[in-house]
Structures are given as C-alpha cells and as structure tokens.
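Summarise what follows for lecture notes:
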Amino acid sequence: MNIWQGKLVRLRPIQHSDWKYFHKDSLDSEISRLNDAIYGPRSEEGTKRWTESEAEKGWDGHNFRMAVENFDGELVGSISTDKCDPRNGTFSYGVSIFRDHWKNGYASDSIKIVLRYFFNELRYQKATAYVYSFNEGSIQMHNRIGFTQEGCLRNMIYTQGKYYDLLVFGLTDEEFEQLSR
C-alpha cells in the first residue's frame, strides 16, 4: 500500500507541466473566493513561475502542497498543509478541487490521506480546518468526514459586498481512528 494513495486519488508532488491546470483554475473567481480571496489576474508566465516554485520546494514533511491526481492520472486539484506545530501536534490544511471534478469525493479522500499521514506517521494529534460560512459544500464535507464545528469567528471574511463568518472545524487523532474502523 502507498500511504499517499486513497480510495479515489493519490497525492504527488506538483510538476512543472501542471501549470496549465492551475492557470485555468485561477481564472474561476468562484473557486478563488472559496479557496481564499479574489486577487488580480496572473499571466501564464506568472503561473508557470508559481508552479515551478512549488515543484522545486524541498520536502520538510510538515508544510507542503501536493497535487491531487485521480486514478486515471488526471490532475484534479491540490492540497496543502499549514500552521504545522510539531510541539503541540496541531496542523491545518486547505484543499482545492478543480470545478470539473467537484462532487466526486476527491477532496474528502485527499483530506483523509493527509490526516492518516499526520496522525499515524508524524504523531500529530489535532487537525483544524477553517471554512468560510458561504462554502456549503465544504461545511457538508467536513461534517461527513467527522469533524466537529468548534467555533465561529463572526464577520471575518468580506466578499461580494458582505461580511461572512469563518467556521472552525476540528478532528483529533482519536476521533479519526474511531472513524477509520
């Protein structure tokens, strides 16, 4: 078994040739809003430089961005980790699946791969996910995976002329182990 493979996808390093997929994805304002925020447009050359930079980053085992690939070998998105705190055993992540591949289970499978790695290999004990209150798909997915909504930071995100809440979801290694049985 490959630890970087789930039931639907495998995680792999980002490659220079992935730039076209990421560039197309960056042109979708809704996806940009759901992932983070809408920034100014990026040129193809800018996307190539970003992809090259991601492809050349060294592996530190904790903070990383990986490509999500289905079993047909098609790039379907990416997942990254951040706020990794080995001392306290906590981390967070972000996942983005390209629009053409929504609702196929790729995001949840990617998250489970990362959870399995952090909990079973690195001894982390808690994952935290931050979800915008307007991202209904992500809220439902985190609930299905078994996360608990632990908090609500009110009026933290401004987009489309309104303020939205930032929801905080958490899952411990013990909860993940129980769900994995």
Remarks:
- The chain has six helices and seven strands.
- The two ends are 17 Å apart (CA to CA).
- Helices lie at 19-26, 29-35, 44-56, 106-120, 136-145, 173-180.
